User: Fold this.
Amino acid sequence: MPITSHLFPEVSVQLLAASRGPGPLEWVTWLAPLLEEPLVVRGGLVAVPDRPGLGIAFDADAVRRHRLD
Assistant:
């Protein structure tokens, strides 16, 4: 059964890559400014990170700059 994603492609890209019937990856960049290595799109495709877990590493300085006090 085809599946698709909604929001947070940084998480969904892993699920779609492991799926037998992946659909499109919804692309939003809201989280990208907070990440050390945002996802990269080349030729309409996103490379699945090969880092452990979901492959997400937050940039501590960026998180501090965007923090609401």
The chain has a mean pLDDT of 88. The beta strands are 41-42, 45-46. Residues 31 and 47 are 17 Å apart (CA to CA).
